[in-house]
Amino acid sequence: MKRVKVAALSFLVVVVLASALADLIAPSSYEHQFREMPNARCSSQHLLGTDALGRDRFSRLLFGTRVSLLLAPAAALVSAGLAGLIGGIAGYAGGGLQRIVMAGTDLCLSLPWMFLLLTIRAMLPLNTSPAISVAITFALLGCLGWAGAARVVCADAQKLKSAEFILQARATGCGGFRLFLQHFLPNLGPVLLAQFWISIPTFILAEANLGILGLGVSEPLPSWGGMLQELQSLTLVSARAWVYVPIILLVATVSCFHVMMQREEPWA
Amino acid sequence: MRRQILLLSWAMAALMTCGYARGQNSGQMRFCLSAQPKTLDPLKVADDASETVRYLTGGVLVRVDRDTQKLMPELATAWRVNRAGNSISFTLRDKVRFSDGSPFTASDVAYTVERLMDPDLHSPTGDSFRSTTGRVQTKVQDPHHVTVTFPAPVVGLDRLFDQVAIMPARSPQNFMAVLGPYYIAENKAGSYLLLKRNPSYWKKDSSGRQLPYIESIRLEVQQNRDRELIRLMRGEVDFINSVNAEGFDLLKSQASQMAFDAGVSLDSEQIWFNQAPTAPLPDYKKAWFTSKHFRRAISSAINREDLARIVFHGHAQPAVSMISPANKFWFNQKLKPHSYDRKLALRELELGGFQLRENILRDAAGHTVEFSVITNAGNKDRERMAAMIQEDLRAIGIRLNIVTLDFPSLIERITRTLNYEGCLLGFVNDELDPNAQMTVWLSSADNHQWNPNQKTPATTWEAEIDRLMREQASSMDPQKRKRDIDLVQEIVWEQEPFIYLVNKHALSAISPNLRNAHPVSLRPQVYWNIEQLALAPDVKRPL
Q1: Which of A189, B53, B181, B312 fits a disulfide with B245 by CB distance 3.0 to 4.6 angstroms?
Q2: Per-residue DSSP letters for A188-221?
């Protein structure tokens, strides 16, 4: 298991480094259209060929990886933070407040998020640059993705409330806001960290889904979701194997995140 | 023994001959509808799928030949429009019966027209006859002669009857009794429709054989275009009426005999700017969008040849103006597409008070020129065109933001809130007569997209378009109308309220099993000559 984790970590490091150094590695700009060679095959000039508009697919993959890998963790951070705050307060307060907050959380979980996301995106100002638009997309994902995690955090907070060290802190006169901030919240750290790691692949996939619907990152900025749109084309899929590279990278990256999150269980 | 062999050979030859005859006069043709028809009532048709059923089942008085674009007799052997243009008299074909066996007479025409023009029916087909309020009058002289009089002149009156499927006045089957080549035998909602040959159909071929040749048609509801292509290649369906450029090229590479490019179609793709004074946009942007120099500069900066070559794989051509070159009579031959000329674009911008400094374009007040263009999400061709235009405009210092929206949100913005800057969309055109575009070109119209519902024309050129469109609508002289429409095209070419990008080609895919197919650029591209279509005698379908 340890070797698998090392391999997964190494893969993630390579992917992150390649995307971070995209400006140096990429043979051309992600937006430059080589109009004389649309849908070109792999060559020394274009390692993964070109897309329908003649843009170098390898360069777009590097920059797209940067977008997806930078912003998915950021969205996961926002989501985990909101889950910690909402779930933590609900679990800590207990009683009526907990019931109300959890009812609100259940309501959030039951909403059709994809449609809601489409509606909210449609209401955003039109004149935003692609970079801001992608940031908004991930911010929305982060702001809307807290509910599931909040439930887990709340359950953990409930258990924590009856922990001995909390009772001891109460007995010594520590209570209210101070108890919550100094003793309660820090001990929710492990569960929040787990939620953070779980959310990253979820958000990567959510952006990919939005991209497939044509509502993800706007042109000309690339993202994994946008690049996966090419797989909808029967012509390309049947004729060019290298269009599968973005989905292979997506599956591999998401799998590596999952491997990294697994705890090593002792053999029974 | 020898005699037995001879007899056997004779019997086999006879069977083969019969088989061929059955191939010519039998079999089931299959093709896909993209959705379930919304109505089977031919007078209420408003969607493509219903239009397909109407075309295959409806008998009309006159038919626009999709190939020659000329008006041909059908159930009417002769017709005459009066000088005022508000009345039309038909002489009807003798010995014609509906699919249920009831006879076709002038009363059926009168009943159909009265029902069509009933305001309570809200018939989209009826709307094209409605130039003013008032009742339509029908006069049945005898079973074979009928006159229809409208309250006001109707432009292109005779050609409008191409869309009017005659219904029986007395049949208990109502609109299910038809005069067209097929009748609806089965309708499984969401799955398929089965049409069977109308046993009473009046047409025969030159050798006296009953038309149509094909016994039945199975219309399968299939939304996914890629899946439709796969089904064609497997032999499950016999043709695809309209294929996109990617699918067309795939087909051409794998089975070139199945791919047909009928040339430029009536459909266009265009971009326009929001010029509505009430739009929630900054004043300086409204000033850009209402500037002719700005619009012409954008037009000159767009490489239409590249759009046609890259996005549509060469199956499109740079568009000229409001009428496609496919429209043989009405297209203004003097006009040519705007050329791709970056220098000309910069010159126009200079004339409009814009300045390019350090690769950033600014207006006279120093605002950076940046705007957004909305288009519908999921339409790959439009998204690609927008990305190419974005690159073209960057070369003249303009930053274009592309926003893809789900279709309802887009329609909400361009029709109600007017909260958008530019829009990239296409127009699907079915009508050859430009009078059908009145709702787009009149400044007071809802669909006058760049500045709808104007009380008085905002510009002199819009006032001139209004005048010319009204004049052509009230004239019965085709040459006078042609001159007016030519002038409108010239104004539109000059002012570019719509920056026309490309006219797509009519691409279709046809199985070798289907005989006598001769696809054309007008709808319905493949089955416009449905009576003449035949199936090969040995069609085998996968189980």
Answers
A1: B312
A2: GHHHHHHHHHHHHHHHHHHHHHHHHTT-SSPTTS
Q: Is residue A265 part of a domain?
A: no
E strand intervals along B239-323: 239-240, 259-273, 316-318
Residue to test with chain A: of B244, B404, B410, B423, most A Cβ within 10 A: B404
Q: Tell me: the pLDDT tens digits for B504-526?
A: 999 999 999 999 999 999 999 99
Rounded to whole angstroms, the Cα distance separating B432 from B329 reads 9
CA–CA dist B59, B341 (Å, integer) = 51
Domain at A126, CATH number:
1.10.3720.10
The distance of A148 to chain B (nearest Cα, Å) reads 27
Q: How far apart are CA B448 and CA B441, in angstroms?
A: 6
A35 within a domain of the structure (yes/no): yes
Residues in chain B, pLDDT under 70: 1-26, 542-543
3-class DSSP state for residue A94? Answer: coil
What is the span of the domain harbouring residue A31? 2-260
The 10 Å CB-count burial string (b at 16+, else e) for B470-483 is eebbebbeeeebbe
- Quick one: pLDDT at residue A244? 86
B391 vs A127: CB contact, 8 Å cut-off? no
User: Which amino acid, residue B514?
Assistant: L
With CA atoms as reference, the chain A residue closest to B417 would be A123
Vertex B506, ends B505 and B508: CA angle to 5°? Answer: 130
Complex confidence, ipTM:
0.78
Give the other-Cβ count within 10 Å of B299's Cβ. Answer: 24
What's the pTM?
A: 0.82
Tokens encoding B436? 């059908």
Residue with tokens 């929305």: A140
* Three-state DSSP state, B277: coil
Q: Across the beta sheet with B145-149, what order do the strands follow? A: B76-81, B87-92, B145-149, B137-142
On whether the CB atoms of residues B123 and B116 are closer than 8 A, the answer is yes
Domain membership flag for residue A221:
yes
**What is the average pLDDT value for chain A, to the nearest integer?**
85
Handedness of CA B244, B247, B250, B255 (dihedral sign): negative
Closest C-alpha among A190, A166, A186 to residue A176: A166
**Phi, psi at residue A263, to the nearest 5°?**
-85, 150
> What letter represents residue A10's amino acid?
S
Q: Is B380 an 8 Å CB contact of chain A?
A: yes
Q: Provide the domain count of chain A.
A: 1
Report whether B88 contacts B147 (CB < 8 A). Answer: yes
Domain assignment of residue A66, yes or no: yes
Distance of CA B522 to the CA centre of its chain: 7
Per the model's pLDDT, the better-predicted residue between A4 and B500 turns out to be: B500
Residues 9-48, chain B, touching A (beta carbon < 8 A): none
